[in-house]
Amino acid sequence: MVNMAKIKDIIKLLRPNQWYKNLLIFIAIIFSKNLLNLSYLKITFQGFVMLIIISSANYIFNDLVDLKKDILNPEKKDRPIASGKISKKLAIILFLSFLVIGLISAYKISLDLFYIVLGIVLISTLYTLLLKNIVFADLLAISSNFVLRAVSGAVIIDVFISPWLVIGIFFFALFLVTGKRYSELNYLNKNATKHRIVLKDYSKDITLSLFNIFMASLFIVFALYSFSSEHKLLIWIIPLFMYLILRYYQLIIKDGEIARNPEKAVKDPCLLIGGLIFIILSIILIML
Q1: What is the C-alpha separation between 96 and 269, in angstroms, rounded?
Q2: 205 contacts 249 by C-beta, under 8 angstroms
Q3: Angle between helix 163-188 and 238-254 (nearest 10)
Q4: What is the pTM of this model?
Q5: 44 with 156: CB under 8 angstroms?
Q6: pLDDT confidence bin for 203, thresholds 50/70/90
Q7: Model confidence over 50-107: pLDDT tens digits?
Q8: What percent of the chain has pLDDT over 90?
Q9: If you compute the radius of gyration of the chain from its CA atoms, what whole number of angstroms results?
Q10: How far is it, in rounded angstroms, from Cα 244 to Cα 102?
Q11: CA 220/CA 238 separation, integer angstroms
Q12: DSSP string covering the chain, please?
């Protein structure tokens, strides 16, 4: 008889709430105006599923390495491995299985994609074992993987991706992760270093300053791209873009739960509705 509770724990271990990051693979097909090309859409979706498999393997590996720290973290102690619902042996089997399946899938789609996925795995592994404990290097590692996800979409369908988009995604990722660090410092207070060693080298002033810098950079990059690229109609949604970023900023300062868990941004009506309108308008203006 199938143990439904165990299946639910395995699904939770894979962190489906984090899979939204892999949607970046669709950036290339949208901005290259190939969204209605069914063959491109099909292979991009295959790449999306492959990234989900690879990212899930990375999450399992991270949970295995961070087991002792997660047990002490009030927001992470209920994770399947930390709570004991998933054994370390089963977690290791799942990690290896997903890693192998993901790499084979990437290789079958494209050799270039395989190299990019190897880069994602390498950066994720270095982050888990080393970089997450080095101030600023942790931010850059996470942001680099955001960029690689977006670039993988261009590689799959063999189209050019603007450097402005790469830079924009990089600053967007930095914006999210610095906001998360700021929120962690606020939430964990004196216990911050027990849960994340690198927080000893950060302060609320430093993280807030970085957050402001990356937010301003994001505004500038989006505005410059809108004016200088072939998609000049995007200038009409610059105010909406600014509103969404400022709303996110407000939520981080007011209540850091969304910063620590960006996937919960959908619980804020302003971000949810505004975000959907922004995405729909962006696609329409790009396709015109």
Answers
A1: 39
A2: no
A3: 20
A4: 0.90
A5: yes
A6: confident
A7: 999 999 999 999 999 888 877 777 767 788 888 888 889 999 999 999 999 999 999 9
A8: 64
A9: 19
A10: 34
A11: 10
A12: ---HHHHHHHHHHT-GGGGGGGGGGGHHHHHTT-TT-HHHHHHHHHHHHHHHHHHHHHHHHHHHHTHHHHHH-TTTTTSTTTTTSS-HHHHHHHHHHHHHHHHHHHHHH-HHHHHHHHHHHHHHHHHHHTGGGSTTHHHHHHHHHHHHHHHHHHHHHT----HHHHHHHHHHHHHHHHHHHHHHHHHHGGGHHHH-GGGGG--HHHHHHHHHHHHHHHHHHHHHHHHHSS-GGGGGGHHHHHHHHHHHHHHHHH-THHHH-GGGGGGSHHHHHHHHHHHHHHHHHHH-
1 has a pLDDT exceeding 60: no
| CA nearest neighbour of 79 among 92, 98, 94, 66 | 66
Q: Which residue has the tokens 């990212």?
A: 55
Can you read off the two tokens belonging to residue 167? 């830079």
Local confidence band at 219 (pLDDT 50, 70, 90 cut-offs): very high
**CA–CA separation, 124 and 81 (whole Å):** 19
Q: What is the mean pLDDT of residues 4-12?
A: 84
> Residue written as tokens 């080298």?
201
At position 61, the amino acid (one-letter code) is: F
Classify residue 51 by burial, with Cβ atoms within 10 Å: 0-12, 13-18, 19+.
Answer: buried
Rounded Cα distance between 49 and 102, Å, is: 9
